Amino acid sequence: MATEIERKFLVVDDAWREQADAGTEMVQGYLAAQEHCTVRVRLAGSGAKLTIKGASAGISRSEYEYDIPEVDARTMLGELCEGTPIVKRRYRVPHAGHVWEVDVFEGANAGLVLAEVELDRADEALERPSWAGEEVSGDHRYYNACLSRYPYASWPA
Amino acid sequence: MATEIERKFLVVDDAWREQADAGTEMVQGYLAAQEHCTVRVRLAGSGAKLTIKGASAGISRSEYEYDIPEVDARTMLGELCEGTPIVKRRYRVPHAGHVWEVDVFEGANAGLVLAEVELDRADEALERPSWAGEEVSGDHRYYNACLSRYPYASWPA
């Protein structure tokens, strides 16, 4: 078990691309998306993972992650997951001592670009890059589990 | 992914004990117990497993099972699982070419004894032992996920 401490921001422009890697395509879905815990299946590159996260306490939550066979993940995504699978490309972007992850969503969530950064402590100092705009860490709408149920394309204008 | 094909019966007396092994103590809980899938955490003997099962189609359902660290299972059981943990002792009982599993429930489900047998095919011939009474394969009340929410002790008399 690990503790995930993460802050999340809207991305306001493309300046992050200058420092980004080539990105990794990800497809993920939710076996369960509940208040007290989520169970996620993710295909990323050539690997697959099952991830369980507990309820959020501020910007922290417990996280359990296991490698699973890719074929299992594909079947679960096709047959057991609720909502719309999340398809996105994740880029790693180093900035001022942290590695940010920029998620460029596709499909039903196309148009949405989010930046996340994992911290060691909730009160850790963070230098926000110019391309990171409004913080949305506590906003449920931007949780991937919620985007699976209520994709960005379905949001009121 | 495997397919679990299983029949379940009420146990009417103790005659099964003559052929039974010493049994294994199990504690299990549910991260999610939904119509379309369940996510179970189980401690059994010195091991721990995470098991995902799909919706039932007759007596069959898809099943994905992974070994996980025991410490993870204990934390999940304590912090993330819904309902009452299921505590039971499972005995293996060979009978007429099949290995039956007899679950003697404890705690909030004490008094309940169920026998399960896994089959290779849904229409496989099965010789029912004398101690196996009414079949409850399709009865949701006897699903462990349901017993976790509505323990036997809470059932109307």
Radius of gyration of chain A: 15 Å
Work out the count of structural domains of chain A: 1
CATH class division of chain A:
Mainly Beta
Counting copies of identical and different chains, the oligomeric state is: homodimer
Tertiary shape of chain A: globular
Mean pLDDT of chain A: 96
Major sheet size, sense and barrel closure of chain A:
8 strands, antiparallel, barrel
Poorly predicted ranges of chain A (pLDDT <50, ≥5 residues)?
Answer: none
Q: If classified by CATH, what would the architecture of chain A be?
A: Beta Barrel
What name is given to the CATH topology of chain A?
Answer: Hypothetical Protein Pfu-838710-001
Q: How do the strands of the widest beta sheet of chain A line up side by side?
A: 1-5-4-3-2-6-7-8
Domain CYTH (chains A, B): 2-149
Organism (chains A, B): Wenzhouxiangella sediminis
InterPro entries (chains A, B): CYTH-like_dom_sf (IPR033469), CYTH_domain (IPR023577), NeuTTM/CthTTM-like (IPR012042)
Active site (chains A, B): 30 (proton acceptor)
Question: Any key phrases for this structure?
Answer:
homodimer; 157 residues; mainly beta; Hypothetical Protein Pfu-838710-001; eight-stranded antiparallel beta barrel; 2 helices; 9 strands; globular
Protein model, in words:
Chains A, B: Residues 2-149 form the CYTH domain. Chains A, B: It comes from Wenzhouxiangella sediminis. Chains A, B: InterPro entries: CYTH-like_dom_sf, CYTH_domain, NeuTTM/CthTTM-like. Chains A, B: This is CYTH domain-containing protein. Chains A, B: The active site is at residue 30. Two copies of one chain form a homodimer. The first copy, chain A, has 157 residues and is mainly β. Chain A has a single domain, classed as Beta Barrel (Hypothetical Protein Pfu-838710-001), CATH 2.40.320.10. Helix content of chain A is 10%, strand content 48%. Chain A has two helices and nine strands, in the order E-E-E-E-E-H-E-E-E-E-H. Chain A has helices at 70-79, 144-149; strands spanning 2-11, 24-33, 37-44, 47-54, 60-67, 82-95, 98-105, 113-118, 132-135. In chain A, strands 1-5-4-3-2-6-7-8 form an eight-stranded antiparallel beta barrel. In chain A, a hairpin with a 3-residue loop joins strand 2 and strand 3. Chain A is globular and about 40 Å long. The model of chain A has no long low-confidence stretch (mean pLDDT 96). The interface between A and B is medium-sized, with 21 and 21 residues.
